[in-house]
């Protein structure tokens, strides 16, 4: 490609190349080493693609696309299986929003349980939640998985469908460049997906202890299942369930947020522009005529013409993008700005005054508990977008006016 923007980040001692869209963005040494580790595995390839929001993760680097042949690495998918974004454009305009958005934020927080622990769950799930589980066969499918793997807990399924969670998950009301009002949210498969991911990561480690390897495995978090093994099929089935649950969770949350907005804002309709995409998942795909298992850990599918979402942070812009279908990135792009500070470092280095200044234009939490999500904890979204203009084109630029964090 004449307009390619990636750099070759060679893995010493490995024939597997690493292609990185990292020009103008920081890439810490620990993340580089993690990328080298995964590139040494004989079933990884034909190359690894690294997105500009790349940073250190558990097992595999966040912001990476890892193709594998005949094997799957549960820790590369992670425990927030199916985590992703949803966005919808409404017919509301900026002038339809009240000057003070505090009441709307409170309404959304009441309508959608936020945070971790029991406070972030439904006290009594509605009939609508049960209907969604039944109609989608999610409950039935999970029952079949649990019948084979009884250690997987399933008691949170109905209590957490339609809930936000904590950490970097959020709900936002945004304005685009024309003044149209959007709703955008970020969440995944919640506690059940976490339990499924953690369970299979541990099973992969147990299998690793029984394997005779003809190669060095530099990190036990790269423990894997091989195609043809019962646990391979069981994991694929479970991870597919968690991805479907995550998508349904975003749909349920979106419906609840829109219902709260209808209570407090002028009448509105939804426009056709809507997106619901994963950025932590694995699926079979064909690239260069070869069928691969493609794991995107903090990366979004960006096939030619496909819409995606790249969020910034609590105080910066986000983007609705259209994929350009780059074969070098396995048709992928970044999933956000990417952390530049660990949560611990952010809490130590960012002051409450700095956080309040950075989010002055947003109706959001401005207390010490969200310091680790402050804009300074993230890379420059402008630099991240500039590093991947060969992967996506910007369709809409969104500026948040309200942000809900767990």
Automatic annotation (TrEMBL):
Its cofactor is Mn(2+). The active site is at 335 (gmp-histidine intermediate). It comes from Rhodanobacter spathiphylli B39. It comes from the Bacteria. Binds 2 manganese ions per subunit. The keyword GTP-binding applies. Mn(2+) 2 binds at residues 186, 279. Its EC number is 6.5.1.8. One of its GO terms (molecular function) is manganese ion binding. Pfam families: RtcB (PF01139). Mn(2+) 1 binds at residues 80, 169. The lineage of its organism: Bacteria, Pseudomonadati, Pseudomonadota, Gammaproteobacteria, Lysobacterales. Coiled coil: none annotated. It catalyses: a 3'-end 3'-phospho-ribonucleotide-RNA + a 5'-end dephospho-ribonucleoside-RNA + GTP = a ribonucleotidyl-ribonucleotide-RNA + GMP + diphosphate. This is 3'-phosphate/5'-hydroxy nucleic acid ligase. Keywords: GTP-binding, Ligase, Manganese, Metal-binding, Nucleotide-binding, RNA repair. GMP binds at residues 168-172, 279-280, 311-314, 318, 335-338, 405. GO terms for biological process: DNA repair; RNA processing; RNA repair.
């Amino acid at each position: 490609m004449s307009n390619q923007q990636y750099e070759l980040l060679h893995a010493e001692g490995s024939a597997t190349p690493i292609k990185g869209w990292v020009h103008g963005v920081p890439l810490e040494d620990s993340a580089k080493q993690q990328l080298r580790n995964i590139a040494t595995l004989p079933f990884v390839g034909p190359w690894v693609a690294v997105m500009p929001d790349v940073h250190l993760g558990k097992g595999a680097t966040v912001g990476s696309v890892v193709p594998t042949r005949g094997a799957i690495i549960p820790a590369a998918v992670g425990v927030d299986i199916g985590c992703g974004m949803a966005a919808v454009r409404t017919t509301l305009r900026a002038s339809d929003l009240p000057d003070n958005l505090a009441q709307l934020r409170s309404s959304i927080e009441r309508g959608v349980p936020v945070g971790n622990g029991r406070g972030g769950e439904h006290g009594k799930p509605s009939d609508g939640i049960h209907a969604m589980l039944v109609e989608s066969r999610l409950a039935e499918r999970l029952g079949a998985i649990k019948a084979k793997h009884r250690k997987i807990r399933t008691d949170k399924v109905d209590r957490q469908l339609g809930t936000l969670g904590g950490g970097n998950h959020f709900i936002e009301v945004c304005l685009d460049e024309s003044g149209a009002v959007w709703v955008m949210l970020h969440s995944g498969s919640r506690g059940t997906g976490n339990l499924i991911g953690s369970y299979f990561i541990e099973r992969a480690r147990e299998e690793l202890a029984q394997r005779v390897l003809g190669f060095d495995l530099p990190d036990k978090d790269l423990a894997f299942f091989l195609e043809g093994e019962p646990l391979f099929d069981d994991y694929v089935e479970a991870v597919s369930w968690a991805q479907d649950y995550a998508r349904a969770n975003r749909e349920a949350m979106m419906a609840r947020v829109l219902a709260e907005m209808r209570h407090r804002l002028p009448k509105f309709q939804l426009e056709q522009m809507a997106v619901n995409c994963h950025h932590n998942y694995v699926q079979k795909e064909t690239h260069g005529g070869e069928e691969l298992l493609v794991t995107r850990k903090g990366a979004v599918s960006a096939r030619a013409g496909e819409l995606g979402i790249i969020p910034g942070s609590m105080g910066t812009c986000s983007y609705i993008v259209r994929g350009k279908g780059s074969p070098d990135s396995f048709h992928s792009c970044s999933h956000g700005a990417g952390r530049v500070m660990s949560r611990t470092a952010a809490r130590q280095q960012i002051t409450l005054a700095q956080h309040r200044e950075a989010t002055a234009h947003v109706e959001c939490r401005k207390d010490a508990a969200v310091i680790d999500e402050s804009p300074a904890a993230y890379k420059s979204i402008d630099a991240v977008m500039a590093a991947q203009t060969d992967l996506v084109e910007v369709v809409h630029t969104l500026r948040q006016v309200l942000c809900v964090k767990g």
